[in-house]
Design brief:
Elements (H helix, E strand, L loop, with lengths): L2 H6 L6 H13 L1 H10 L6 E4 L5 H8 L6 E5 L2 H10 L7 E5 L11 E5 L7 H13 L6 E7 L5 H16 L12 H5 L7 E7 L8 E8 L7
Length: 220
């Protein structure tokens, strides 16, 4: 079995959820990219917007062994993460929580496809709070859609309409940031960053922003 299949296997209790998890883990390039970036890390990981715990399962099946704390505002998804994922792997914890009220933490941070569900003011606060939780040598891995006027941006807007109508994601109007707005929280000599397209075979305008807090031992 592939990593994606083993990760999705945690959700066999629900035919719909198993199909969703298998498709997501197979076709979403961010999962493999995050696993590659974090595979050698022994720093704790904060997964903001962890959903049903699929990324945590994917990381464990990719032999990432750091402790993982997932936070998710949807209590039903947290219950699924605890029931279907946490019991199968060591050092996983899932909590009901919000990106706007992050727990005390120091290590690496991952936040996939969450930022645009916050308004502009909240985005600035959350990005500052993420920066404060990255330890020396640690990374933040943030996937979001940039407001850049491309056809992929407009395709993403249409996709968000479907997601909200389906009820999988609850909330109000989306606010997609510019690249400059995302990186504003990570300016200064202690930071390095990269931005990589992360849309895979989809039409969506996804990018993975990787920022690292440099330490004296961190290669530049």
């Amino acid at each position: 079995m592939t990593v994606a299949e083993r990760s999705a296997d945690r959700f066999r209790a629900s035919r719909f959820l198993h199909g969703y998890a298998k498709g997501k883990a197979t076709w979403d390039p961010a999962y493999a990219a995050v696993a590659t970036l974090l595979k050698a890390s022994d720093r704790p990981l904060l997964d903001i917007g962890c959903g049903v715990g699929l990324l945590a399962a994917f990381l464990r099946e990719s032999r990432c062994r750091q402790s993982i704390l997932g936070i998710e505002p949807d209590a039903a998804k947290v219950r699924l993460a605890r029931d279907q994922v946490a019991g199968f792997y060591p050092s996983l914890e899932f909590q009901v929580g919000d990106a706007r009220e992050l727990p005390g933490f120091s290590g690496d941070v991952v936040m996939l496809d969450v930022l645009h569900y916050l308004d502009a003011a909240c985005q600035r606060v959350v990005l500052d709070e993420i920066a404060a939780r990255i330890c020396p040598g640690g990374r933040a891995l943030i996937r979001t859609t940039f407001r850049d006027g491309t056809w992929r941006y407009y395709a993403t807007l249409l996709e968000e309409v479907f997601v909200r109508v389906s009820g999988w994601i609850r909330g109000g109007r989306c606010h997609f940031p510019t690249q400059e707005e995302v990186l504003a929280a990570f300016r200064g000599p202690e930071w390095s960053f990269s931005v990589t397209p992360m849309w895979g075979r989809t039409p969506f305008n996804s990018h993975l922003v990787v920022v690292q807090r440099l330490s004296p031992e961190t290669p530049q």
